[in-house]
């Protein structure tokens, strides 16, 4: 992330994430913040880029049990979400971008 503080606030406001305890160090010694949905389970790490560095393009996917509800919830929070689609495997998904243009996918698997 180029602007870590702004990114942290965007993810908290738009996605409802909250900061995880600072109980680890980033191997690169760069500034970072860990965000999570709940106190237990996986977390998302936002790491500040060095000046002039190019961001790696990663494909971030969040899984949802109710795709329509997730789509509406994000849209109501002011996130520009794409219309839902279905891939060849029957997965339903939509995409949106964070404030730095990183693409994030929300997916619901069939069944």
Brief digest:
This protein is of the alpha+beta class and 111 residues long.
For the sheet with most strands, the description reads: 4 strands, mixed
Uncertain runs are: none
Strand order of the largest sheet: 4-7-6-5
* Multimeric organization: single chain
Total domain modules: 2
**Beta-sheet strand percentage?**
25-35%
User: Which word captures the global form?
Assistant: globular
Structural class by SSE content = alpha+beta
Overview features:
2,3-Dihydroxybiphenyl 1,2-Dioxygenase, domain 1, alpha+beta, three-stranded antiparallel beta sheet, 111 residues, 20% helix, globular, four-stranded mixed beta sheet
Please specify the SSE layout and strand pairing:
Blueprint: H1 4-15, E1 18-19, E2 32-36, E3 44-47, E4 60-63, H2 67-76, E5 85-86, E6 92-97, E7 103-108
Parallel strand pairs: 4-7
Antiparallel strand pairs: 1-2, 2-3, 5-6, 6-7
Would you write up a description of this structure?
- The chain is an alpha+beta fold and 111 residues long.
- The protein folds into 2 domains: 1-55, no CATH class; 57-111, 2,3-Dihydroxybiphenyl 1,2-Dioxygenase, domain 1 (Roll).
- It has 2 helices and 7 strands.
- The strands form 2 sheets. It has a 4-stranded mixed sheet with strand order 4-7-6-5, covered by helices on one side.
- The radius of gyration is 15 Å and the shape is globular.
- The termini are far apart.
- The model has no long low-confidence stretch (mean pLDDT 88).
């Amino acid at each position: 992330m180029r602007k870590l503080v702004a990114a942290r606030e965007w993810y908290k406001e738009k996605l409802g994430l909250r900061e995880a305890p600072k109980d680890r160090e980033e191997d690169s010694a760069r500034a970072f913040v860990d965000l999570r949905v709940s106190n237990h389970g996986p977390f998302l790490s936002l790491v500040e880029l060095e000046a002039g560095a190019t961001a790696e393009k990663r494909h971030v996917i969040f899984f949802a049990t109710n795709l329509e509800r997730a789509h509406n919830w994000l849209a109501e929070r002011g996130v520009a979400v794409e219309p839902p689609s279905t891939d060849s495997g029957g997965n339903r998904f939509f995409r949106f971008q964070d404030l730095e243009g990183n693409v994030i996918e929300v997916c619901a698997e069939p069944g």
